[in-house]
Amino acid sequence: SKTGYDSDDKRSESGLEKQKIDFQLVPKMRLTPGTDLSDALNIPIIYFDLDKYNIRPDAGVELQKVVEAMKLYPQLKIDIRSHTDSRASDQYNMVLSNNRAKSTMDYIIASGIDRNRLSSRGYGETQLVNKCSNGVPCTKAEHQANRRSEFIIVK
Fold first, then answer.
1. Which residues of the chain fall below pLDDT 50?
2. Which of 24, 49, 101, 121 has the fewest beta carbons closer than 10 A?
């Protein structure tokens, strides 16, 4: 073990003349309020398909990492913030992002995390990560970057 790192355990075999054991100490996660848990876990962003709010299979894999971190740190509370791209009306996108936040939260709860440790909200297209606002021509990949959920550490 080492200060600032999670410990690692390995078993050694008895009766061997020589053996080599590698230990991999991993820095402890910095669970600072206001930061995105995805950054702390170094996991890819959770994305949604155009005009959809269901959890995609690739997103489910990444969401399981969020669930495991919440199980490992039972004091952890997060705020799920979901977003859309700028296509469709502002009002429609607000409803869609709220549905994305709800489906993300429901997935985490169904995986065994207490609802009291979660909050969620949709932000529509109010927090774009690029230039792709209303009327700006963008590629499909650029629009995809805005259709996401974030996991902001509350406590």
1. none
2. 24
